[in-house]
Amino acid sequence: MKKAIVKVLVINSGSSSLKYQLFDMKTGERLAKGLVERIGCGGPKDHTEALRKVVADLGEPKDIDAIGHRVLHGAEVFKDSVKVDKAVLAKLDKLVKFGPLHMPANIGGIRACQQIFKGVPNVAVFDTAFHQTMPDCAAMYAIDPKYYKKMGIRKYGFHGTSHKFIVAEAAKFLKKPVARVNLVTCHMGNGSSLAAVKNGECVDTTMGLTPLAGLVMGTRCGDIDAAAVLAIMEAEKKTPAEMDTLLNKKSGLLALAGSSDCRDICAKAEKGDKAAELALEMLAYRTALYIGAYNTVIGGADAIVMTGGIGENSSEVRERIVARLGALGVKLDKKANKVRGQVAVISAKGSKIPVVIIPTNEELMIARDTVRVLG
Ligand code: AMP
User: Fold this and answer.
1) What pLDDT digit, counting tens, does each position of 289-317 carry?
2) Catalytic pick among 46, 127, 136, 369
3) Model pTM?
4) Which of 7, 115, 116, 166 keeps 20 to 30 A from 200, CA to CA?
5) Is 262 in the pocket of ligand 1 (CB under 6 A)?
6) What angle do CA 230, 216, 337 make, to 5 degrees?
7) Which of 219, 220, 307, 314 should be mutated for ligand 1, with most atoms under 8 A from CB?
8) 93 is catalytic
9) pLDDT above 80 (res 1)
């Protein structure tokens, strides 16, 4: 008889850090959690050495049944989580171009686990997979199709593991099967994205080829006219790499009001800082704009769900967003909106669409998917 999968290790392997969590899937309980930093820059020399440290931290465990890995990009090759074998690894190696910074680290983490946890199955869980159900009309860019055919340039979307978790939890909360639930899911943190979910499947999302598109974020600009990018490059003679840094790391809240942390911006706005006030209004405006659009796309939402550091905790930002949703008949319950970090309805009784806070748990979702894939 096949051994039941109980202990699942979840690995999030970044370029210079490795985060892990260990779950007991019988109870859903988290048994351990940790972080190894400075890989290749003063700390462990590579991901294998980092993983040896994890094994030591966990007390040389002998009973890990499976390992789930967060992988940034599955492109169109991986539409779901997948058990890793030689053929899968070869395909992953070919996807490095979609995430030159993250993919080598993600793949390095898998290879290190194969070496250290001999015989333990590895499952790759992709940030992009949940969005693979998007129809072409939402996913394609209006440029010469040769760029899609040659280079795979289209919208992929990210935070998929979080959106998928939220959809499953929201369906439970609404007492509806996942396959019948229509939602606008809002993952708002340092990076932010919205998804339009119809009958449990993603039909549109705000991030694009990369996580740069869509909402106003901590350090990313979100949507911008491509011609503005060209104008800046031309005027300041910037290389593509420099422009990439400007848009991904030096824009968003940081550029607008001096901090990428939403708490700082809220505190500044409270003291009357005009730049911070405008930054919050821009963030709220664009989020509300997409909520309205996605509500149309899915033919009316059963709920608007908020999650992520900002979505779960910031009453201030939530209030500013909901204040712009009057045309949808959405009304806030100001008292309920004080809640932080727990499942709660923050809309008023008469609200046409409920607004629900659901804390995300991407690691648990990866562990659940690992169990599902290994059957
Ligand atoms: P995440 O990337 O999901 O960890 O979210 C990080 C973001 O959540 C940062 O911008 C934080 O400022 C924001 N955040 C966390 N707690 C709060 C809070 N109590 N009020 C406002 N923003 C918060």
Assistant:
1) 999 999 999 999 999 999 999 999 999 99
2) 127
3) 0.96
4) 7
5) yes
6) 170
7) 314
8) no
9) no
